[in-house]
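Weekly structure sync - notes
Attendees: PM, LS, DV (DV joined late)
Agenda: review two folding runs queued last week.

Item 1: First target. Sequence and structure tokens pasted below for the record.
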Amino acid sequence: MPAKIHFKRGAEEREIACAPILTIGRTVPNEIVIPHPRISRNHAMIRMLGKEEYYLIDVGSTNGTFLNGKRIVMPTLLKDLDVIALEDCTLTFCAARDAAAAPEPDEDADVTLTMTSVGVRMEEITLFVCDIRNYTRISESMEPDQLASLMAKWFKMATKTIEECAGTIDKFIGDAIMVRWSSETGNDGHASVTNALKAAQNLNEICTQFNAAFKQLPLPFKIGVGINTGQAVLRNIGGAGYREYTAIGDAVNMAFRFETESKNLGKDIVIGPDSYAHLPQLLWGSALRSVTVKGKSEPVKVWAITFDEIAGILAS
């Protein structure tokens, strides 16, 4: 049985099948209409990523979206029986039957043995990790409603530009976004890396717009990016009432490490060797740096660049 939402408002109760996108607001054309004066016209959405993986996203509501009693700011992965509270209405998320029935992992057992996995395949993909610089300091300095509005707009615009660059959002992790390009979306190695750079360029342009529009920001709104290409496992992983379709493996881990190195190197983007190899060597041949990253015994040669350099790279 597919995932569904149990809607309850006063005496009204009904089941709503989870479509790829369910919008929530005060009036039609939202799929879930809650006619309460404190519900925004466009309040929140439930969005599917991958297979049977649903995120709750506040889209800039005035009075907030609450999950299990806490106001959300970031897109949040829903688990079985999570309760979304919206004024006088509750929406209970019911995971797909096979995901909800997955056994609770034994904390003392090998996680690779206790994890439910189906549809496993190995594929070369390009991974892109984007993280907001100084997010903690920004969040601590803003009012909750201002922060919620800022982040809702960021994730909405970021998602749109990533998809326009043929990327697939793998997951949201706090303020970070993990994206993948693979042959399943018609990207070869060169196209994947080129599209990842286009996405980085476009996301930086959104940051520039934010800095002009949100004068109350305590620090500039900036991002750092890590890009890496390699073999990764694409599969469903499940446990404790949810299922997540995601890429896992060393190539994924390295993309996160490279994003961290972008801060250490004082650059905007750090690109791994199996990614920059898909671009003309004339561009990167004399601009490599050796970095030591967690999980690797030998230094890794990376290409560290700024957003200003992307236009010239893409024009080559």
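Item 2: Second target, run right after the first with the same settings.
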Amino acid sequence: MKLVIIIPCFNEEKTLPQVLNSIPKRIKGIKKIEKVVIDDGSTDKTAEVAKKNRVIIVSHKINSGLGTAFKTGINTALERGASIVVTLDGDMQFNPLDIPSLIEPILKGEANFVTATRYKKYLDYNLKNRGIKNLGNKLFTKLVNFLTKRSFTDVSCGFRAYDKESLLRLMIFGHFTYTHEVFLDLVHKDMVIKEVPVKVRPNRKFGKSKISDDLFNYGYSALKIIFRSVRDHRPLNFFAMPGFYIFIFGFLFDVVFVIGWLILERTTPFRTYGIVGAFLNTIGLLLILLGFLADMLGRIKDTQEEILYQIKKSQWRRQI
């Protein structure tokens, strides 16, 4: 069984050597371990450091975003016949020695996707001084839990493990980040997900996070990705349900208008109710029809993803 460890990097020359040297050389149940560094347009010596450590390196000419780096890493891992993939940040906030614990549920056949959690319990490091970042993570966790009807504790962590099935079925589109979209996509595809508590440094030793330090941009971009993911996976809930409520609300205006006309035998002073009701009815019906149309397109999308899954599975088998 081959384990491929993906390390997306953007200007991580100072911490990358420590990350690479801390990765276990042997793990029970794993025959081969490969390290893949995704250099996402770094302007420092990240690529040189990776080459000196004799790891596989894939470079983007420009900084394309964590989501794009993740997709590059996943594609590279599948091309190399990976059975399990671990994604690990290059800033040494996570301890590579936790990789065996992270992949254990997959090796035991208990999960398709395992994510590290920083919030189930505090271990060596105290996360309380992360301030507003903690609040943001908790809000996104509540949102993802609401959308998936699950009870996760950390949906923003980048330290994760994927089995072959989840990798082949995974389909994400976000460029800026990917963390929340992965949950929504894999839950939609009935993958078994588990969390494993890990040690984490609350703050980076060098530099700043390129993703979460600009909290406004991070929040906006992550919400946009979640918004699109829900639209694609649950079109009836996204379009038809709001349309139904809007139509019912408009119907109440219609009732007032009709009752007024029956009692007074004229449209005034209830004409406005009739106009508002008709407008809301129209908007509601359009959203309902759009929901059914999007649902039909969703079936086509699911069929296309199944075809793509079979193609990727066939290609993976040729790599092993």
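Discussion on item 2: The chain has two domains: 2-233, 235-319.
Action: LS to circulate a short write-up before next sync.
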